[in-house]
Structures are given as C-alpha cells and as structure tokens.
Amino acid sequence: MARPLAVTLACTFFATSLAAQSTWVVDAAGGPGAHFTTLQSAVDFAVGGDTLLVRQGDYQEFTAWGKGLTILGDPGARVVDVTSGIVNVPATERFVLRGLDFVCTGFCQGSSLNIGFNAGPIHLEDVAFANRLEAGISVNTCAQLTMTNCRGNARGCLSTQLSTVALTDCDFYGEIGVYLLGSPGGVRVLSGTVEIAGGSYRGGDGQGTGPFQVVAGPGIEVFGGSVSITGNDTIVEAGNWAEGGQVALSAGFSTVVKLDPAVSLIPKNASETSGTVTVTSVPALTGSAVPGEIDLRLQAPVGDAYVMYASFPMTPFPQPTGLLWINPFTAVLFTSGTVDPTGERRITLPLLVSYDGTPLVFQGLTANAGGLSVTSAVTVVLP
User: Fold this and answer.
1) Does residue 169 contact residue 196 with C-beta atoms inside 8 Å?
2) Which long-range contacts (CB under 8 A, 24 or more apart) does 160-164 make?
3) Comparing 272 with 133, which gets the higher pLDDT?
4) Phi/psi of residue 302, each to 5°?
5) Is the pTM of this model over 0.85?
6) 88-97: buried (b, 16+ CB within 10 Å) or exposed (e) per residue?
7) Do residues 187 and 219 lie in contact, with contact meaning Cβ atoms separated by under 8 Å?
8) N or C: which end of the chain has fewer CB within 10 A?
9) Residues 300, 368: Cα–Cα separation, whole Å
C-alpha cells in the first residue's frame, strides 16, 4: 500500500501542474450543449492542449495535424469506414485518445488509424478497432506511443516502425490471411523499440492448400529493433494453418528480443519461437485508473526490492538498467517495498481530485543480488 503522505503530495503536485485549456463537446446528433457535429471540424478549431468530449454516435474520419489534443469518447462513439490520423505532434505537446471505436463495416482502404512523425507523446486507451482487410493501427516515426487496454481485430493489428512503443494489457487478434498477401502477425515490429506487458496477441489464421495456401501469422513478429515481452498473464499465440505449423514469436535477423519466462507462447504445430530470443526475467508493471483510484500491479521475482515513480509523459531514453519512460523533472516517488511470495505486488493510489483526461506514467525500479532492473511502463488517463 502506498504511503498516504507521498500520495497526497503527488496528487497536489500534479493538480497544480495542469494548465487550464478549453473543452469542446462533439455530438453527431447536435444535442444540447454541442459545439460541433463532426470530429474534423472540432479538431480543426481546437488549439494545442484543448479537450474534445465526443458523445455517442457515428463519425467520419479526422486528421489531427501539428497539435496535441485530448479526445475522450463516450461509450458508443465510433469512427466508421474511414482512415484517421495523428500526425506531427510537436515535442512540447501531447496527444491523448480514449474511448473511441474505429469500425470497418464494409470495404475499407488503408489502416483504421495512422500515427506518424510525432515528436510529442501519444497515448491511446480503451481504443477498439476492427478491419477485416487492412491493418488496424500503423505507426511510423513516433518518439513515444503508449497504448493501454486497447483491443482489436484486423489483418495485422499493429504495425510499427522507427518508433518507441509500450503496450499494456492490449488484446489484438489477427484476421484470416489473404491470398498473395499472407497473414501478418498480430503485432509487427519493423524497427524501433517495443515493450509489451500483459494482454493477448494472436496472429491471423491461414487458409487454402497447395499453391493457393495462405500461411498463418505469428502472434508477434519482429524484423528489426528491440522488443521486450513480459507479464505473468501475457499470451502470444500463432494463428491456425491447415497445411503446416507456425511459431508464436518470430524474431528476424538483427533483432534483440527479451522474453520473460512467465509469458505463455502457443505455437500451432511448430516450435514456440524462431530466430534469436533471449529468455530472461523482466519485471512487469500493469494498471488502470477508475474514478477515485489507480490500481497498479507489479510482477517481479519474489523478494525483489522496488521503488515506484509517477510522472508526466516524456520521450523515453535508454539507461543501463532499461528504457526510462518517466520524466525526471516531474517524477514523484510514491511507494517502495518488496515483492510478495506470489511474485506480485498490488498498489492502490487514491485520486483526490479530478484530472479530466490527464495521462500519467508509472514505472518502477527493482533490485536483487543480480543487480537493478527497470520495469515496463504503464500510462493511464486519469478520470
């Protein structure tokens, strides 16, 4: 349990650090209090730091260019049959997207959401997508992208290159493959750095036989860069393929893949992994925020000492112990202790004020006789 004094100081610090910005209501039905009926008109009008509250309804695409916004969707708020984008957010701003569903009801060209060339932090939470023929989310050249409790099914759920990405408790399921195009992995890493903690990642199924066969996809495939996969409840699963086997985790040439032994790998008539994968203990941190409190779960070797920090998002940078996601200029140490005999430590933090969609990053440092390790990072949107 966190120390009450530390939590009080932390909450007071973050509350006094928030800048007042404008809030706009988007309602496709044009109901009472609405400022806009389309997402694009709201995005165009808003300035960096503004918040858009999106009511239930179906919306067309939006492209946010060169500005950091907070977009909070009510249950039932959907972007339908189109491609949206978050592009060129400056390093001095941040973009938060929570609670929108990206839905393809027919034939859709392009990814449901393109996220590209962003110097500022991007955070997606409780975002869902479905795209049977195209990719779900495509990421290119982003300094920091975090995703928490996101879910979707697509023909290749997440494709990322030249980016630093953290996935926490996401569930991605690949759609069946397409002839001549194949079935990519549920997560495809082309380059950059990706950290995965918690959730389930499944490749698309194969189909057909002989010359017309479509090979199933692995749960996660890595073609370059560095990937860390951890968490006692993380599942990486290959798609089904009648003609042969498929691995759960595919590591290509010139990659660095760290795999915690607690992660479940489910191959289909094949070995669990291909390529060079290093199996090593990697501490995992997952969590979520609900009105009134934040719930965190640390998973690490029994008896490890730990300290936990919270901060505003920042561009992560490597340290000898691992990738550091917290901002040292806004970091607050709020608790410490040792890992329980179960291999877990649960931490609950009270929220003393309303934060209206502010993202907060949590990360820990663990220590044992073997040295120091940095946990995975979890970003949550504060209610």
Assistant:
1) no
2) 160/187, 160/188, 160/189, 160/190, 160/192, 160/194, 161/189, 161/190, 161/191, 161/192, 162/190, 162/191, 162/192, 163/139, 163/192, 163/193, 164/192, 164/193, 164/194, 164/315, 164/316, 164/323
3) 272
4) -60, 135
5) yes
6) ebeeebbbbb
7) yes
8) N
9) 10
Structure tokens at 268: 């289909």
The strand pairing partners of 103, in sequence order, are 80, 130
Contact at 8 Å (CB) between 106 and 80?
no
Rounded Cα gap, residues 334 and 159, in angstroms: 35
Question: Which H or E element spans position 198?
Answer: strand 192-202
What the block records as the tokens of 1 is 């349990």
Can you tell me the distance from the alpha carbon of 303 to that of 1, in angstroms, rounded to the nearest whole number?
A: 16
* Rg (alpha carbons) of the chain, rounded to whole number: 21
- Give the CA dihedral 69, 70, 76, 81, nearest 10 degrees: 30
Contacts of 19 (CB under 8 A, 6+ apart): 49
Please say whether the beta carbons of 198 and 231 come within 8 A.
yes
Q: What is the pLDDT of residues 120-171, one digit of tens each?
A: 999 999 999 998 878 899 999 999 999 999 999 988 899 999 999 999 999 9
The answer to whether residues 204 and 217 touch, using CB atoms and an 8 Å cutoff, is yes
CA 39 centroid distance within chain: 23
For the beta carbon of residue 38, count every other beta carbon within 10 angstroms. 15
DSSP result, 254-272: TEEEEE-TTSEEE-BSS-S
Backbone dihedral angles phi then psi of residue 312, each to the nearest 5 degrees: -75, 160
* Percentages (nearest 5) of helix, strand, coil residues in the chain: 5, 50, 45
Kindly report, residue by residue over 15-29, the tens digit of the pLDDT: 544 455 899 999 999
